[in-house]
Amino acid sequence: MAELLPLLAVRALTKHFTKRKSPVEWLMRVPPVSLKAVVDVSFEVARGETLGLIGESGCGKSTLGRTVLNLHRADGGSVSFDGTEISAMPEAAFRPYRRRMQIIFQDPYASLNPRRSVAEIVGLPVRIHEGASARQAEERAAEFLPRVGLSTEHLRRYPHQFSGGQRQRIGIARALILNPDFVVCDEPVSALDVSIQAQILELLTEFRQQRGLTYLFISHDLAVVGRIADRIAVMYLGQIVEIGPKQAILDQPAHPYTRALLAVAPRLKRRPGSERVALKGDLPSPLNPPNGCRFHTRCPVAKPICATLAPGITDLGAGHHVACHLHGGAGS
Fold first, then answer.
1. CA neighbor of 169 nearest in space, from 212, 227, 111, 220
2. Scanning 29, 62, 187, 208, which has the fewest C-beta atoms within 10 Å of its C-beta?
3. Separation between Cα atoms, residue 11 and residue 98, nearest integer Å
4. What is the pTM of this model?
């Protein structure tokens, strides 16, 4: 039997931003500085799978998610969706894929237009991608709202009239009303209370089971990711340093950074005898990342080679991979 293609395949994806120069820098003719947000990232997501992407704020998680969706244009590498390379597509050719690839944003207020009613917000994708009339789009929105725990009574209301959890349900309805295949969930519960987080995660899980959705679930919270993901990828300063099945990452973390993240996740049950790893200092600037292993400036077990040579990827078996010299990773 031929091997099935992954729904999403990312290869050596790179995204840089040019830092805007100040007036003084313009006068001094200071050369432009590149912010290396995503560097040489590769991974795959199978159809119907949820890949959790974790890391500290500022490590490039959201930029990676938006670059996968072509909301940011990649500077290098490729993104293949359902067997088709999409990262270099012109917008006109990519438009049919927009309805199949959606995003749920982190902030359930800033991501909603305050001047539009719920009927307009949720129905707009139907008008854009299916050419529906305003009335037809509103009817679709009215049919869909109960699936996310809202009622038709909410159609005429505006975002400021809802709680944070209700606003996020509106954002989910907008993303899922077109029945997409793939959804980037960009920290969709980080701005919500813990009890509301559980409700939203249950809702996303139900849609995945009912519709066979595929998720890239971005978060800085390992407890949240551990609840919804099948596999977990750990990102640090624009690069994935460890990826593997959920239980392997949570029970046998191989990278010092992953162990540090687990150590500061109080809601996760630790293994008996597990060691706490203190994570010192702040995330270095992506404008000037460290040489060698990017984590070596904060790593409690760094070796001299870590400061000079970037580690390659080591296969630990059963789909578990890590980029660390402690596991024999050679420079690439």
1. 111
2. 29
3. 20
4. 0.90
pLDDT of residue 329: 55
In DSSP terms, which residues pair with 243 in a beta bridge? 233, 321
Element at 102 (helix H, strand E): strand 101-104
Return all residues near 70 (Cβ < 8 A) that are at least 6 apart.
79, 86, 87, 89, 94, 97
Q: Report the alpha-carbon distance of residue 159 to residue 162 in Å, rounded.
A: 6
Q: What is the pLDDT of residue 4?
A: 61
Tell me whether residue 282 is in a domain: yes
Which residue segment(s) compose the domain that 288 sits in?
8-51+61-93+227-327
- CATH code for position 291: 3.40.50.300
- For residue 160, being part of any structural domain is answered with no
Distances (CA, A) of 29 to 16, 18, 22, 278: 21, 15, 10, 42
- Give domain status of residue 199, yes or no: no
Output the six-digit token pair for 108: 């359930």
Return the pLDDT at 197.
87
pLDDT at 20: 72
CA distance 71 to 236: 21
Name the stretches of the chain with pLDDT < 70: 1-4, 21, 25-26, 30, 266-278, 329-332
Number of folded domains that form the chain? 1
Distance CA 252, CA 258 (A): 10
Provide CB contacts within 8 A for 88, sequence distance 6+.
78
- Beta-carbon contacts of residue 80 (< 8 Å; ≥ 6 apart): 8, 9, 10, 11, 86
pLDDT, residue 317, reads 93
How much is the pLDDT for 1? 35
